[in-house]
Amino acid sequence: MSYEARLQELGIVLPDVSPPLASYVPVMVHGDLAFVSGQLPFVDGELVTGTLGKDVELDQAIVAARACGLMILAQLKAAIGSLDKVERVVKLGGFVASTPDFTDQHKVANGASDLMAEVFGDAGRHARAAVGVPSLPVGAAVEVDAVIALSAD
């Protein structure tokens, strides 16, 4: 089954791509790798803002990380034409705005990681970093970037 068909089967509708907030491109393809810039969490059209351990709950942040993953897929599809060109999700980087005593960044990042496995199966399993940071652009609670291997065709 194609990944595009898998999205339909799962009932996943990709969001409209958002433009960059600064001087960068959303996706850079170099050779057989696509580097997807950090994507922010828009849930129901609203940016999820705040800090874990202070004013954002873990469950809300997991949903936000999944939203980042959906935007990664949307940006990738816009750049390469079809998700069927994906060979493997190589790595995700999860950044979580959190207080110094919050230590569940890895659980937050699972929101994006689980989405990749759901869509791409074994090819969606990847290496990952999940780190806490004091703040993110425009007050976002979560940001996720990706490195994706593309098929040679």
TrEMBL record:
Matches recorded under InterPro entries: Endoribo_LPSP/chorism_mut-like, RutC-like_sf
Ranges where the Endoribonuclease L-PSP/chorismate mutase-like domain occurs: 4-141
Transmembrane segments: none
Listed PANTHER family: ENDORIBONUCLEASE L-PSP_CHORISMATE MUTASE-LIKE DOMAIN-CONTAINING PROTEIN, ENDORIBONUCLEASE-RELATED
Protein name: RidA family protein
Organism: Aurantiacibacter gilvus
Organism placement in taxonomy: Bacteria, Pseudomonadati, Pseudomonadota, Alphaproteobacteria, Sphingomonadales
